Amino acid sequence: MMGRPTGLQVALMLVGVAVIFAIDTFAPLDIEIAVLYAVVVIASADFLGRRGILLVCAVCVLQTLLSYGIVHSESFESGPALRALIGLCAIGIATLAALRNRKAAESLSDQAALLDLTHDAIFVRDGSDVITYWNAGAEKLYGWSRKETLGQKADALLKTKYPLSAGTTEQLDDPGRWQGELVHTRRDGSEVWVASRWAMQRDERGRRVATMETNSDITEQKQAEDALRHARSQIEHVTRISTLGELTASIAHEVNQPLAAIVTNGEAGLRWLLRDEPDLTEVRAAVERMIANGRRASDVIARLRALARKSNPSHTVLALNDVIADVIPLVEREMLNNDVALKLDLQAPAPLVLGDRVQLAQVVINLAVNAIHAMSQIEGRTRLLSISSKTLEDSNTQMAVLEIEDTGTGIDPKVASNLFSAFHTTKADGMGMGLSISRTIVESHSGSISAASGDRWGALFKIRLPVLQQGEEAAAADRPY
Question: Which residues contact 81 (CB under 8 A, 6 or more apart)?
Fold first, then answer.
């Protein structure tokens, strides 16, 4: 909307009208000075409304007629009368142009006022990133008033941070539109996450003329996502500890076996030393076996500590077969207790994936233990746990596939749709979080997990993860997570 004209603007206009009147009336010139009133009328459109412009027009017309009457009151001459008529026509045309420009300006002003009604922050920057428009939503979100921002560089003012997924203006598509999440800095120094949408205007040569940026505050949403991620991590940790508790017998066996071997080899070595002629070759072999078994026990404990430790996910380059190798010793005793045989069919060389070793091991443990327990009451057929790894083409993308299959009771069609839902369980003492967490972990690795009943019996779980292609390993090592 129009603001009120300032005293200086009105004063300059009155001075201009007076000077033109004085020259037109008292200067001995044979030209029509009154046409200069058109300039006054057009200039008044910058600070006067429709009624004000018409008033200026009326004053200029009266001034023209008055000047003509003073100078030519005694005689009528066609030349001066024609010049006066030209002046009046110029004033009329200028008035029409000023009214039309004022109407267009007021329309733009009204549209701009509508942008102030939105809660979103909207601002426009030119091809040099200089802010040319700043709405009320931007004032509220960032803390700077419109006067303070106009003429400033947007990125420098807001200290824009582009997350890796956001890209930059060079990634705008052909229509000149882009959207993503950015981090801006407010006037008080605090940071705000925004969902940003850009619309670019180009000239006939394709050069960027202006960009309108619309930003919505999503800081609370991001904080909620972080809180949810933290809570999910806590639940994952609790579930992992619970699973390890179920595998206590296997874990104890894996640790006691090398410890017992150390004792046995130590006693044997001592006997070789106590002979009348110590057999140092046998003593050395016994010591080497003790060292090997000590390292084996240390490896088991290291794997347990990694699974039990609560830490943030860390994606590194992994061989899928190594994850399986981490899990098998932990479920071995559980298989023996339930008379379950193991069949491995692992691709060599192993497919490489990008992931968190502990999280993926948790998924394999969950699926393996579920499969073992599903076969615990089976009679009349072999209890077989099959684990395989392979690489498949999926829509021109290579996927590493891990399959875990059992010969148990299979999947009840009534519960198939809820199999990966939180708190859904068929175990009397289960929490119902294992498969739900497994799906979350796999999807966070850009993969997928599915389940189906076997052709005759049992269940088959498939995990699909993107395979790292040649040349991606080095890039993945430098990628921040």
Answer: 68, 72
